[in-house]
Amino acid sequence: MAYHPFRHLGLKALAVAVALGLWFTVAGEETVERTLHIPLEVRNPPERLELVDSPPDTVYVRVRGRSDVLGHLAQGDVMAVLDLSSARPGRRFFNVTRSQVRAPFGVEVLEVASGTVSLRFEPSATREVPVVPSTEGEPAAGYLAGKPTVVPSSVEVTGPESAIQRVREVTTEPVSLAGARTSVRERVAIGAPEARVQLTSAAVAIVSVPIAALPVERVLYQVPIHLRNAGKGASAQAVPAAVAVTVRGPSETVGQIQPDGIVAFVDLAGLGPGRYNLSVRIEPGHDVAVVGTNPSTVGVRIK
């Protein structure tokens, strides 16, 4: 086929014009250099080693490119990557080079300004430690909190060897007892004492705290004395015929007891006619404790 240099002359002229326009546009863009604060990404952390020092979040790099390209860079477009796969226990230095900086097309990385990163590594360790329940606030007036219990009672923690050696216990979130009148049972989180120490098992615990009414005391007056086991045909009389009895127990129970609900007695078994000074006894009953009687002994005359 014969070549005709003047065929489609208009299209050829248009193509040349577009090419020249693009060349002048690109040639007219100013090439600039800038220093950027870019994120540092850590990869390939070694197994069975713990990073004790926190690596820097960012590094400074000097880049070159057209001003419009550099001006439109978004966060994360340029990023440095640090490979930790070669780490060993102790203090180690890692150099961030230009080859470890990812940049989009049109951006040339000239230099990493803060290129050396110092990091310290320790062997990993685990340990079983007790869980200590934490509480805050006081129960309602007249109520007392008992000893709190927690499930699980212990957990396993892991972290750098030196940090694990310092850990003696972990604690729970505080459980509020403010104004409580009944036992408290709450599911709460467990917290490690150091940021570098992590829980490997349960991260939550159930804390139970018994709440009971404080015991109160009350004096019951004119509690009659009963005379028991007098001999056949004998008659007996106690002086005084009634005593005051002090009891202690839950306020609801103590408040409902009446004097005639307490059985006070004197045992006359084996005693013949005469005058005696005998101890007053209280028959067990009710959900209360007897603190004492006044008087504790009475005079008894047996005929």
Span of the ends, CA to CA? 158 Å
The amount of beta strand, in percent, is over 45%
Helix content: 10-25%
Helix segment tally = 4
Overall structural domain count: 3
Unreliable stretches (pLDDT < 50, length at least 5) are none
CATH class category name of the largest domain: Mainly Beta
Please compute the radius of gyration using only Cα atoms: 45 Å
Compact description:
By secondary structure, the chain is mainly beta. Helices cover 12% and strands 51% of the residues.
Report on the architecture of this protein:
The chain is built from 4 helices and 24 strands. It is mainly beta. The chain has 3 domains: 84 residues, RNA Polymerase Alpha Subunit, Chain A, domain 2 (Beta Complex), CATH 2.170.120; 88 residues, YbbR-like domain (RNA Polymerase Alpha Subunit, Chain A, domain 2, Beta Complex), CATH 2.170.120; 88 residues, RNA Polymerase Alpha Subunit, Chain A, domain 2, CATH 2.170.120.30. The strands form 5 sheets. Strands 2, 5, 8, 10, 11, 12, 13, 14 and 15 form a 9-stranded mixed beta sheet that branches. A 5-stranded mixed beta sheet has the order 6-4-1-3-7. Strand 12 and strand 13 form a beta hairpin. The longest helix is centred in the first third of the chain and has 20 residues. The relative contact order is 0.10. The model has no long low-confidence stretch (mean pLDDT 87).
